[in-house]
Amino acid sequence: MSGARAALEGRAAAMRRVFLGLLVANAAVVAAKTFIAVRTGSLSVLGDAIHSSVDALNNLLFIALMRVAAAAPDAEHPYGHGKFEPLGALGITVFLSVSCFELIKTSIVGLLHDTPSPLLTLPEFGLLGLTLIVNVWVTWYENRRARELNSELLSADAGHTRVDVIITSGVLAGSLLSRQGVRHVDPIIAIIVTLLVAHVGWDIVRGSLPSLVDQAARDAGSIRQAAEGVPGVTSAYSIRSRRAAGEVFAELTIGVAGTLSVNQAHAIADKVEDCLKSDLNLDQVIVHIEPC
Q: What pTM value is reported for the model?
């Protein structure tokens, strides 16, 4: 097994372990919110529990997805399966869209019918507050691991969990204000939450699309300058780069003197590859040689 393949599989295994731990935390949050919803009959808390259950379902989905994304290249996927990861991140926006629709629908109904906000007891407040603390920790942990593993999927899932924090905070704030006699506070907070959810969804789409459409991962001018700085390279052109599954790929053609032997030309190409990997933090580089 090559070093690059071992690193890719190690990264996928690390991400599966992260999602397995998050699954346990999210399952506990769903159980607590469902318990409160059943005891109080609160639709807003029940909706919060349903939204949290999406996090747990996502964790299950992503554990399976990472096995696919880390699979070795095959006849049908010669460049590997890395793009399944940002594709999964986009899938989160589908769940967010459903959440937005349900929240806005419930809010409008609440405004039209003057639905009273739920009144939670002190123990129920404490339990719901505890789920809020858990989700804050999950969001922080996912963001940290997303940076360490350079994962769009973990970053997107952290954004989804952040929505849980916002929704739970809104439910708690709405219930507190309702106790003070403030009318319509629950649907108004829900509408604000919906706008925040939509913003998170847009951030996920904006972060995932560059990888899916093969947007350049590195500036072509920087790659050209670094390559042409290697002794023996007369020019560098036809430069392309992209990102997938946390790795950055680049491909370019270098011009070398036509009088060089094949071994000499390949030695220069190897130096260019090493230079680009070290200077520009590229993971895989393909260098084509053209005598001139």
A: 0.56
pLDDT tens string 5-62: 566 667 777 777 888 888 899 899 989 988 988 887 776 677 778 777 777 877 877 7
pLDDT digits (tens, 9 = 90+) for 123-173: 888 898 999 999 899 889 988 888 888 777 788 778 778 878 888 887 788
CA angle 274, 275, 281 (to 5 degrees): 90
Structure tokens, 1:
């097994």
Two tokens, residue 249: 């790929």
Distance, CA of 147 to CA of 167 (rounded, Å): 25
Q: Are strands 235-244 and 247-256 parallel, antiparallel or unpaired?
A: antiparallel
Task: Give the whole-angstrom CA distance, residue 215 versus residue 192.
Answer: 33
Residues in the chain: 292
102 neighbors 44 (Cβ within 8 angstroms): no
CA distance 285 to 40: 59
